[in-house]
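Why do we bother with a discrete structure alphabet at all? Because it lets us treat a fold like text: something you can write down, compare, and reason about line by line. To make this less abstract, here is a complete entry for Dirigent protein. Read it the way you would read a sentence in a foreign language you are learning: slowly, and without expecting to understand everything at once.
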Amino acid sequence: MVGRAQGLYALASQEEIGLLMVMNFAFIEGKYNGSSISVLGRNTVFSKAREMPVIGGSGLFRFARGYVQASTHKFDLKTGDAIVQYNVYVLHY
């Protein structure tokens, strides 16, 4: 493990399951240890692929810009547990 996803989400739609995602990818190992990438955007969880903007970061990712593509690989309706892949494309100084 090189990091953790930390944040919160809130329901953001009346017609479909859409979430407002506020999330940090916080790195805990290697070159980026102590740095993070911040994401804020709408996530329509039942869409095959979703795109959310990278709005900044900290440490080595200060002034980061880019986007995240999320796709769900597994979702358990009974427990609410999900396995989601996040591909992060980021530019930073």
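What the structure line is telling us, in plain words: Residues 3-91 form one domain. The mean pLDDT is 93.
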